[in-house]
Design brief:
Largest sheet: 5 strands, parallel
Strand content: 15-25%
CATH class of the largest domain: Alpha Beta
Helix content: 40-55%
Structural class: alpha/beta
CATH superfamily of the largest domain: P-loop containing nucleotide triphosphate hydrolases
Shape: globular
Radius of gyration: 20 Å
Distance between the termini: 33 Å
CATH topology of the largest domain: Rossmann fold
Oligomer: single chain
Length: 329
């Protein structure tokens, strides 16, 4: 049953948002141990209706986190195992001739779900990867010049292995730009790994997780996050950060306007998760390392010098004056 919020004021909506956010995070953390920041940011991405890219070495729980998120929400979920022989039509769908009706009938592909899990996305060919570009940006696919809308909310959670290069294809910049956030999970600490092993040997899997939220709840939370106040000073602060990346000599590609929008939306969702109805500069600083570095493409000579996108981003944030903001009235 949907959890209704009784108080329709701005403070009441964000308080309800924060309560539901904490419940969702707690449910996921019953399975994903020792990674509270990663779990919270993954949920923030989803509540901003953004797409999430989980990039890490094998065996760290990328797919488990994606499945734990999907299991916690009572909505439709499809999983796509990306392989070199996967076709674009397997992802988006295809028109098939129906001899009985004497017409072509559209058969939806795997993207027609609320949550789409793309496992090892970099194993598919560039042609198949490009099948995701339209649906990730516009929430629709076009087959034979006819657009078909996917269900809302619509979120892609993809995983990729950055260390194994055999049989993989780098994600193009255009596709990376469509992911609101990219994050890594990393190895657990000793105590968390003990719990992980205990759960695995006891047969505890993500399939045993109970949903704690409906898609209606999720849509309400998407709407609440979108209504969180962004003061002009904070908007200017965000744009100054992203625009500064376009002039850095170490970058061959800076942050796009889509990246600027992604930071603003993620900061709104983060503020709402804290129970606030307005965004602060600190919110922007928290979400930026998850939203921006994968959009900053270094020049080869900068990589040879050991520079990283995250390091350059921190330099930008340090150099941009922090605006003084107050709560929205």
């Amino acid at each position: 049953m949907d959890a209704e919020y009784p108080d329709t004021s701005s403070a009441g909506r964000t308080a309800w948002f924060a309560e539901r956010f904490d419940a969702l995070v707690a449910n996921i953390e019953t399975f994903i141990k020792g990674k509270p920041d990663v779990v919270r940011m993954a949920v923030i991405c989803m509540l901003a209706e953004g797409h999430l890219l989980l990039e890490d070495v094998p065996g760290t729980g990328k797919t488990s986190l994606a499945k734990a998120i999907s299991q916690s929400i009572d909505g439709s979920m499809r999983r796509i195992q990306f392989t070199p022989d996967l076709l674009p039509s397997d992802v988006t769908g295809v028109q098939i001739y129906d001899s009985g009706k004497r017409e072509f009938v559209f058969h939806p592909g795997a993207v027609f779900a609320n949550i789409v899990l793309g496992d090892e996305i970099n194993r598919a060919s560039p042609k198949t990867q490009s099948a995701l570009l339209e649906v990730m940006a516009e929430r629709q696919v076009t087959i034979d010049a006819v657009p078909y809308l996917v269900p809302r909310p619509f979120i892609v959670i993809a995983t990729e292995n950055p260390v194994e290069q055999s049989g993989t294809y780098d994600l193009p910049e255009a596709e990376l730009d469509r992911f609101m956030m990219r994050t890594t999970i990393g190895y657990p600490d000793h105590d968390a790994e003990v719990q992980v092993v205990a759960n695995a040997t006891a047969g505890h899997t993500t399939d045993s997780l109970q949903s704690v939220m409906t898609t209606s709840d999720l849509q309400q939370m998407n709407q609440i996050a979108a209504q969180v106040h962004l003061a002009p000073a904070v908007l200017t602060y965000i744009v100054t950060i992203t625009a500064s990346s376009r002039t850095l000599p170490d970058l061959r590609l800076g942050i796009s306007p889509r990246g600027t929008i992604a930071v603003a939306k993620a900061a709104q969702a983060f503020a709402a998760a804290q129970g606030r109805s307005f965004v602060t500069a600190d919110d922007v600083k928290v979400v930026s390392p998850y939203v921006l570095p994968h959009r900053m493409i270094l020049k080869p000579e900068a990589e040879l010098r050991g520079r990283t996108a995250l390091e350059l981003l921190q330099q930008i944030i340090t150099s941009v004056p922090v605006p003084q903001t107050r709560a929205a009235v």
